[in-house]
């Protein structure tokens, strides 16, 4: 079992920051169950499937792992994976702080312009754990609704927090309301 | 058989010609003896003979032609000249006479020539004699004159419209010609007369209407319109063909009503609004009668009715708001007299406008709908922070409780209750009404404040009829519980008299209720004084003998006690709540107690302790002396039994003001709604398995609409909650689609 210390050693060896998003990609590749942990089986299995047998090869794999984030479908898989990986076992939802940290990490990569407002909103107005549905739908929202909200449909099935977020954006002046057609 | 001599054409026709000339003389009114049967026989026989001779002496064809020519000749020589020289009404009279003569002529001639009809015409399928005769008139007279005739008729009609007397019988006869000339077809009447007449009618009334609409008030205009329609209808029955009635009236209605509908209904000082405002019932009835006849004519009337009722209702709301804000701030939470007046007034305008719908607007669904929509609009606004649901429940309470503000006879109460229940139909938050109603019903039942059991049951029956059995089942349960509790008390008293040892020495009445029926209350909160604990134990023992497996939960906050206060001047019986009694009994053991001591000994919350100490030391009856002696309770106060207290009465009731339950009621209803929405979503999804978001929300709103109007956001939250609880999931590819997870 590799725990937090082990992972920090691994990062040193690989010369990556433990906060680097690539570590999330690695965890995804290894099908890790829990954040900051690799079981022996996960690690060995992962290393094998990545065809790594030396530190050198491991280091070389890092840019390749990173490049996978560019692929939209893979990114979605990783994003969805992150929820279960990061939440406390036995809980149904994800702690708010962990969620926000992950969002900042993931959306920095995805380049969603509203990520800061979102994180601020969710802290100010919700301040509770994040449900899986909200987690999954947020990426959908970030992917499909443009940053001026011009194609946001208030009648749609977006989780209510996303509806509130839109109201919040309009209210705080971050976005102007759609001029009615 | 006799051998007949052959008659040649010239000779035969000569004979016929003489007959025809005689006929013409008769028609022209010259002195001439009538045809005898012998004359007729001879004429007929001549034709018969000429038609039955062997060829080439069979003159059927020639006679058939000559028959026609006889008419032509007479028409050209006599009829047309006489018509041409006459004009207008005289021409019409001449025409009627000529037509009538012509028909006589056709009748006689066709008799003389009858034999042609039987064989020659039948065999060759030629037009019959009668037809030939009439056709001659049509082709020669009618075709030439119908335009002139039509104009003359129409001008007479217009004269009559202007109030002149005209010869209606003449017009009837003339128009009959248009019908008869068609020989079964209405084409001549319709094309040559009716079309132009309708056009003229339209023009006539268009002219009239354009003046009237400027000069007349709406009621006057409608009076005229109704009168015109009546006259036109009358006109049809007197001289037009009955098939013209609908068309004619449609024209008139169009010109008088459809064209000016908006202008008429919106006349500033006399239009629809003004009529409604001034209760012009007769004019409104007339308006309904008139506009019900034109297509979509009632829509704008119903619309204005709705606007008017909405405005009236909204004004009542505003009035009540103003009255409420003028009241003292501290009393604002309690639904008071103003609100009572408000409900009264709402009932009044409902009565009034329902009568309008039933009478003026003849029960038309459009107006029922307008009334409903108007009431729904302003009834759901609420007044000064109280929802209408609460106001109605309070209104009922005031009527049903002893000494309420309304002093009414039994019949008046029944009637009022009936009306309140009717108003409830317009309230979307029926669940909120039910909850408030239950709270108030509980107080009436438990504190013996209900004025009349029959009325209690009667309103429940009415509510049940309107909102369904589920709506009232708990309330009915409450009323029944009380009956059962009385029986139970009787058997408890019997038990005590059979077991004197068990008697706690205090009179005890216990009302056992069924948990689910009643509003929820705090239980077991108070530290009961030892005397009362004995009572509770005693009752528990008795209850054990009656039933097993039933748990008793004690709600002390609803209890009352009669205790003797041994004051120095005299002993006074104090009627207090169990809370107050418990506090007072503490002073049997101590002379002085601090706020903190009282709170700890009673095990009650600050709110409760403040409330009850205030009632005992700061209100009307100061049973306890407070240090410092101020008007409010603070946690540092110290209390002492006021042994000097006295009063005129031997028995006094020390009221403990009830806590404002509004917030709790609303919270409870909110919680119930969450369950109701959950249940509804699950029900829908269980049957549909997969459903789009919009559809789900729609069906959910529909299912719950009978009880309350769920807001879409609340439904959304519940959907998300059900997703978290794995009842539903979102479709992986379509986030707007939900699936039921069995």
TrEMBL record, chain A:
GO biological process, one term: protein neddylation
GO cellular component: ubiquitin ligase complex
Residues of the DCUN1 domain: 1-170
InterPro entries attached to this UniProt entry: DCN-prot, DCN1-like_PONY, PONY_dom
Example of a GO MF term: ubiquitin conjugating enzyme binding
Primary role: Neddylation of cullins play an essential role in the regulation of SCF-type complexes activity.
Protein name (record): Defective in cullin neddylation protein
Native source organism of the sequence: Anisodus tanguticus
Lineage: Eukaryota, Viridiplantae, Streptophyta, Embryophyta, Tracheophyta
UniProtKB/TrEMBL annotation, chain B:
Pfam families: Cullin (PF00888), Cullin_AB (PF26557), Cullin_Nedd8 (PF10557)
Ubl conjugation among keywords: yes
Highest taxon, organism lineage: Eukaryota
GO biological process terms, semicolon-separated: jasmonic acid mediated signaling pathway; ubiquitin-dependent protein catabolic process
Listed GO CC annotations: cullin-RING ubiquitin ligase complex
SMART domains attached to this UniProt entry: CULLIN, Cullin_Nedd8
Keyword entries, A-Z: Isopeptide bond, Ubl conjugation, Ubl conjugation pathway
InterPro entries associated with the record: Cullin (IPR045093), Cullin-like_AB (IPR059120), Cullin_CS (IPR016157), Cullin_homology (IPR016158), Cullin_homology_sf (IPR036317), Cullin_N (IPR001373), Cullin_neddylation_domain (IPR019559), Cullin_repeat-like_dom_sf (IPR016159)
Protein name in UniProt: Cullin-1
Keyword Ubl conjugation part of the UniProt annotation: yes
Family listed: Belongs to the cullin family.
PROSITE patterns: CULLIN_1, CULLIN_2
Organism this protein belongs to: Anisodus tanguticus
Domain spans labelled Cullin family profile: 387-617
Gene Ontology molecular function: ubiquitin protein ligase binding
